[in-house]
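#random but structural
TW: two for the price of one
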Amino acid sequence: MGRISLPQPSPSELRGRQSVRATFRLSERAIEVLSIVSYHLGVKQKSLFDHLLEDMEALNLIAEKFKSEEFHQPNRIQKTYVLSRRTLSSLDQVAKSFDTPRDALVEYSIQRLLPVIAKEREKHRLRKEVIRDMTEYLNEGEKILGKARKLLGKEDPVYNRLETAITVLFNAHSDIRSFVEKGKVIEAF
């Protein structure tokens, strides 16, 4: 087999992906937004940070529009997060270039997740509607299965296929209901 020439990663690229810890002073709301999006979408907070803070264009826009007097609120909570070295480097670079507090850049970057929460809240409302309909459908299916058992008996192939279908529906309903229950965290936000 012929040898394939592939681009090789540089040591600096590999170090950029290395995880580091960074501590920020954030509002309780920002911490909650990050937690909710992470939990609800099943995305690690590190991935959210990397996505939000490696976007240099967005960071630059935030830094340009930043007003320091708006940010100085005493009720900030110190919290340590894991993020990539590259993300931290981007954040530090913009903070230094615009003389903007790193915490402010993080706080306002996290606010970019608010529309995601709004969309997910609406989807959650619709999912609740679907699970209500599905519950009714499952109840009807169980009634039909009971009727088939009385009319045809448990050994009948039609009954067996119907029982399999209702079992699959029951399992899907249970999984979906669990997912909708998990989404309740977004309702209160």
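TW: number two ↓
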Amino acid sequence: MTDDTRQAFDLAARAQSGAETGAAGPRDRLLLRDYPVEVEIGAFQAERGKTQRLVVDIVTDLRPAAPAGDDVDRILSYDRLTEAVDSALAAERLDLLETLAERIAARLLAEPQVERVYLRIRKLDRGPGELGVEIMREDASDATEQAGQTPRPVVALIGAATAAAPERWRDMLLAEAGPLVICVAPAAPGLAVPDPVAQARIDLLAFDQAAWAMVPVLGLEVRDSRTELDWAMRRGAASLWAPSRMVAAAVEPPAGTGPGDLAAWLADRFDAREILLLGADAPGARCPARRLDPAP
């Protein structure tokens, strides 16, 4: 891999490789060099709440194809490279460059023209030099599944009082056509502290606890990341949502930490078909809301 990466980013090395591999030579390539972005990323506390400069280099090997002539609609546009970077950064806050690199590569490998991706990401603001990662990915099977169309879910928002009597609504809720993502309001407010950032985290952890409390009642798994929820949705599975991790990692977090704020934010992020309300007020989401009245 080291030689492959060196050849990908070094045109002189690539030319030498072509001479050694015979008349056919290496694949045509599309390049993006020194693409600057500024984003919040990093696992250390000192890296939270501030942005860092990154530089991204991408080289894509293209599959053999008939000549495109001068028709822009028959080629892989340069914009697809920058869009892969920008969309991966916009999805959520990440701790690791390695994760960011994998997600960019997955997006590019989902393009039908792309056979192989070489990717380098460097941090410019950590330490005396440039820190970074380099990867090469070429198996598009997993990437295509991850980048494929995720079904639009139904988000269920269960009020705290209603959650206390699950025998009145459990079967009715689980009979709804999936995929289903359930947000449970906590029974009581959490510890009150004067710091607003700390208070928001405490409030979110109360929702996590409420989700876990429903596990023995509903027999569902708690999921706390977009990756896990995507996986469950593609399989039509229902999930209990623990929001604290996703909200903390969000580039654009919800407006508040109330039940309606969180349900609306989740529904908008996943383009939900609708929000089911069980003993809860309608949130201000883009999708319609429908009340599901528990049995008496």
